[in-house]
Design brief:
By secondary structure, this protein is of the alpha+beta class. The protein contains 5 helices and 4 strands; from the N terminus they run E-H-E-H-H-H-E-E-H. The chain has a 4-stranded mixed sheet, with no helix packed on it.
Length: 130
């Protein structure tokens, strides 16, 4: 299970690949992550809120406006919906699906690890350390 952390990794497809490597065959992956709404009026209003209002309010409360500017920027850049499910690591999972939440502000992704273990192209960093 991963919640609101996938957009903070440099290589989301590689991260999925590593999760698939360590998850047992038949194991389930559940990811919730921010994304981009496809609802015309709602997406425009939410973009205004996240770009303008949220940084002001969050910055005033916490004293860290930059954190509330970072969130919408990384949410917009995250490969959501079909793009997420088509990343290179997603092919280690069967039954990959996504569902929009809160009008598409966030998405719930689910996948089941393939019963056949993926072949690793390199030795595990854990094994190398032994």
């Amino acid at each position: 299970t991963r919640a609101f952390g996938s957009r903070n990794v440099d290589d989301v497809g590689g991260c999925l690949k590593d999760i698939g490597r360590v998850l047992r065959p038949g194991g389930r992956l559940v990811v919730i992550e921010f994304g981009q709404s496809k609802l015309p009026v709602f997406s425009t209003l939410f973009q205004w809120y996240s770009d303008t209002l949220m940084p002001r309010i969050g910055g005033a409360i916490t004293g860290n406006r930059a954190a509330y500017e970072y969130l919408p920027r990384t949410s917009r850049a995250f490969p959501c919906r079909e793009t997420f499910t088509e990343l290179r690591g997603a092919n280690d999972f069967d039954e990959v699906s996504f569902r929009p939440l809160f009008g598409g502000i966030a998405y719930l992704y689910r996948g089941t690890r393939s019963q056949v273990a993926p072949r690793s192209t390199k030795e595990s960093p854990i094994a190398e350390a032994r």
